[in-house]
Amino acid sequence: MPLPLFRRLLDEVGGTLVTLRLWHYGAPLLHPDLPEMVRIARSWGVFTAVSSTLSSLDPAIAGGLADAGLDYLVVSFDGGTRETYRRLHGADGFERACEGLGMLLATRRGRGARRPFVELQTVVMKGNEGEIDAIRRIGEEAGVDKTTLVRLDDGDVGWGAHPGVERPEDLLPARRDLRLDRAAIRAIPRCTLPWHTAVVRYSGLVLPCVTDLGQEHAMGRLSADSPPGAFAAIWNGDAFVAYRREVARSRATTGLCACCAQRDDHSLDQVGP
After folding, report:
1. Would you put residue 241 in left (φ > 0), alpha (ψ -120 to 50) or beta?
2. Is pTM, for the whole model, over 0.85?
3. Pairing of strands 270-271, 220-221
């Protein structure tokens, strides 16, 4: 996202925005203006979070994020050994990730800061469920604030995209308590996310939900040259209103919402400490 577009968006919504998550299935640390974006958001008093594998972290970025006041950092870390990490992440970045984690926390300590709060997050799969203790030890030794295990969503993992995976059992962990309970998800009557959350893509495209990876439900598009009130016009526009009406009518059982594991921003996919 170009910095002028980000500034323009925060100028409009910064006063009412509560939380800003600076990622959408991408690599936010590759953005050269990320620390500045965090600084702008924090100047509005917005709680700001980033998710990353730390594969592209360097001292300048670590220091920049700490100085900008980043509140929360989720570190995606799916293997307790180099081989497992390489197999699941598709890259031989285990040492790099461990070094990045240590660098980040050392930077925080060096500044005498309490932020960002660092969460080590692991999606538990058949290939790494035997390394849970090892992953937790890595987090403890680095000094992370929290280690979270995420239950794999068997509804949208895309079995055909994983080499050697032909059925859910090839990827899901053996332990049933580490699998997402989809019956519990479906028991949530409907989702309220479209009433208080939106996604703005790097292109300025506004989506109603983080799960719309195909960008099939575009509500509108913003640019650095958009007139004042452009986001409000999209937020209150006919397309967004119709989408909310459909979510309320269907009780989140059809379309994009049918198998959504993010429904109502719950935490059923996370294993408690």
Report:
1. alpha
2. yes
3. unpaired
